[in-house]
Amino acid sequence: LKAAENLGSVLLVLLTTLQLQPYKCERICTRFSPEQFTMETEGLKGFASDLYKSLISETPGCSQNMFFSPASIYAAFSILLAGTAGKTEEEIEKALHVAHNKDKKKLHKAIANDLDRLTAGTAETKVCMANKIFLDKDFPIKNPYLSLVSAFYAATPELLTFSDSETSRVHINQWVEGKTEKKIKELFPVDSIDHRTKMVIANAIYFKGLWTLPFEKSDTRDSQFTLL
């Protein structure tokens, strides 16, 4: 294979009782270069390492390969962080490996800069990231949160009627499909969303690029495949 087309996982966080606030969704589609992996907060690297260790520890003797996108999950929790305070804020900051800053704009600017580096690169590689928040139409939202996540995460809110859970589920799945080049069509199965749902935070990452060391067809052969 000379080209790899992989889909970063799409993370959707369903909140049924948490009282947060909304944001803006515009697709960011740019190019990526490994040389741009100098992070401002170092939080993503620490979070990715912790998450991998946690997933491995929870699945001892796993007989399947594990695939997930730390950046996708990190982005969604960063958007969640922007609407928290007190103990909840402390716990999420700890998980994301970011230092507390009373000036939320400075903190989220640094996090957003790190995420932007993942979607900036060369003509050989395509990386697209999109954020979205789906809110129940009766869920209270504060304007400062809306401004913050719109400015730093390019995320816009969309109001849904979660009491009509099936219509909402289909609509969110359609958004996911559109942002992932139709690679994920049914992220939410039937009955995964119900009338108790108040918020869904979504992040989608799409990646397509060449292998640094491509596998030439002439160098391959049929053989045993061993899971990692």
From TrEMBL:
Residues 49-226 form the Serpin domain. Belongs to the serpin family. This is Serpin B9. Transmembrane segments: none annotated. Coiled coil: none annotated. Residues 1-25 form the signal peptide. One of its GO terms (molecular function) is serine-type endopeptidase inhibitor activity. Keywords: Signal. PANTHER family: GH10112P-RELATED, SERINE PROTEASE INHIBITOR, SERPIN. GO terms for cellular component: extracellular space. It comes from Schistocephalus solidus.
